[in-house]
Amino acid sequence: MDDAVEGASGAGAAAPTRVRAGYVSAVDQIGLPSGVEAGYFDEQDLNVKLAQPYPTGVDALNALQAGEVDFIQVGTPAIAAAQKGIDLSLVGNYTGSSSQKSIDETMAVVAAAKSGVDGKDLTTLRGKKIGVSEGSINHLYLLGLLREAGLKTSDVKIVNTEPPDMAVALKTGGIDAAIVWDPFPITIVDQVDGAKEVLRGGGHIPFIGYIVTTPSYAKKHPEVVERFLTARARTDQWMRENPEDAADSATRWLPGTKKSVAVEAMKHNVKQLDPRFSACNYLALDTQARLLAKQGAVKAGFDVDKYFDPKPILKVMAANPKLFRDLPDVPKSAAVEGGYRFDRASATKACPS
């Protein structure tokens, strides 16, 4: 709705541009509220109204479709949502990598004391009850581990478990191991006697997480999108440079989060704070869509070009190179332009492992 945007004539207008934005209650999405708290959106003359944290990416997508927010942060659930007809424009990243093929530092495997699961020997997953959230990023991480171990999904028992329920499931023997994103691996180890984090990251899958708006909003308000992405990029840089301060912010925006947990989780989170776009990001989404399609969770043939809108973040990258100077360079062969068309073979070759 046009009345959701006020003073959209650009930075310096008499009234700041009003923007509605939503995020999921998770450590890797904390950049949005932290940036609002730190005043980085104010610097871009944006008055950001935050929705109450959504429990899942699906809820955030529903809010975007209903017109309740202008921007959300969402990862894997965007694939199924797009195939169901929700109009999405992926305009930036909140987590992932534009310089390499796979990154998954915020993902871990936590095993029960007597499970026999050994992160150094993934074949020990055979026959075990593995807790994941089916269709989510932790499910895909399991698939990546099984592929590395030469195992099939039929070699393990997948137990569909929501992250908040994993500690109890591990404690009661409902699962032998939990695969999940931060801060849950850290809190599970703290809550379950003998539980141990046996594997962290490893580059088994490309982690994805996008800043998303609708095509109509992006078309009507291109300058607002660019300013929003500039503020998020500034926030990400601040978090990379000040992880303890970012952890402090997380405790304020994620009620009940211990400072020690936030500090530990932020160490991993900052490794994936790369808001840029390259062919590696297209490759990541295509890879995740293919993995989900093999499991029957989404339809095959997902067209990543239909949903990426790289122009806004490319403009931000060109106008504000200092916001990205501490990040690894995007490989020259992986750099994209506004009219980029994805080719899996060339992207795979361009993006290092």
Nearest-integer average pLDDT: 93
Strand order of the largest sheet: 2-1-3-10-4
| CATH homologous superfamily grouping of the largest domain | Periplasmic binding protein-like II
Q: If you consult CATH, what is the topology of the largest domain?
A: D-Maltodextrin-Binding Protein, domain 2
- Specify the overall morphology: globular
Order of helices and strands: EHHEHEHEEEHEHEHEEHHHHHHH
Largest sheet: 5 strands, mixed
Count of helical stretches = 14
The CATH architecture term of the largest domain is 3-Layer(aba) Sandwich
The unreliable regions are 1-10
> Cα-atom Rg, whole angstroms?
20 Å
Considering DSSP H and I runs of 4 or more, what fraction of the residues is helical? 25-40%
Relevant terms:
about 350 residues; alpha/beta; D-Maltodextrin-Binding Protein, domain 2; 2 domains; 5-stranded mixed β-sheet; about 40% helix; disordered N terminus
3D structure, described in words:
- The chain is of the alpha/beta class and 353 residues long.
- The protein has two domains: 238 residues, Periplasmic binding protein-like II (D-Maltodextrin-Binding Protein, domain 2), CATH 3.40.190; 94 residues, Periplasmic binding protein-like II (D-Maltodextrin-Binding Protein, domain 2).
- The chain contains 14 helices and ten strands.
- The strands form two sheets. It has a five-stranded mixed β-sheet with strand order 2-1-3-10-4, sandwiched between helices.
